[in-house]
């Protein structure tokens, strides 16, 4: 496993991060989830990403159980705050000082740790003054409950405003967690250049585009039983944007490129996002331990420029590049 610095900080994280969105506490039984975490540890992965909103806090609990007994200093535990949790009452969501502070305490308890390595604002909160949010993060840092602060799916302008406030308050904003893959490149136009300027790294999610880039979905074919596209608990909704014949046909054309590089399709997809020097790590998910080992093998892979050009030529106009898509990802008002 290779490691990269997160932003301009001294924190090093593994190039592959194990994440448990849509799996732990939901799609995958606890025993299988714990087996996947242990497979990640065996593969050299030290960075684990979750969020309190995943499975309404259950995912954090499962991850805490799976990591129990591991040397805490050898791990980087990442979680997030914003989404509605608990009974979803009026203060159970957003980035108010009250919710950030209380959510942090809950995450620490569920994860079974006394500090969070990277605490991330899961979305931008238009209903709370940014100054209030960043002050709450600053206080958690000073209390030692949070070591570093990041965000998720913020626009370039939001990153700039957040980084300036963080600096004034005596800490760094070091990361952004956006969706990024061969098919979804909306961060390349504005977010990545701004992040490079500010010393912020990307912690990218869905590098395999919800499984579409594995090539297991074929144009005109039925999704494999048990796959993300058949998951009625949320997975099918997330993947449906890619379940078009024009996209699936282009993805099938990537198979010779992966074969030429002696990579699986999943490894090619994960390695592709890691070619971007602003990406510190790619988050992978899994329902079986063998998936973890397959994806983790993408660490350290260098894709030749010629192969990158072939990928661009194959995918062509099915790639989404519109920077405005980042702005659309944040709700403009609190969900209650």
User: What is the global morphology?
Assistant: globular
Tell me about the largest β-sheet: 8 strands, parallel, barrel
| CATH fold call | TIM Barrel
Note the total helix count.
13
Cα end-to-end separation: 41 Å
Overall residue-averaged pLDDT value: 92
Helix-strand makeup class: alpha/beta
Query: How much beta, percentage-wise?
Result: 5-15%
Number of domains: 1
Poorly predicted sequence stretches spanning 5 or more consecutive residues:
none
User: Which architecture would the CATH scheme give at its second level?
Assistant: Alpha-Beta Barrel
| Strand tally | 10
> What topology, given as strand order, has the largest sheet?
3-4-5-6-7-8-9-10
Order of helices and strands: EEEHEHEHEHEHEHEHHHHEHHH
Helix content estimate: 25-40%
Based on CA atoms alone, the radius of gyration comes out at 19 Å
Pfam family, one: Aldo_ket_red
Protein name: Aryl-alcohol dehydrogenase-like predicted oxidoreductase
Family: Belongs to the shaker potassium channel beta subunit family.
GO molecular function, one term: oxidoreductase activity
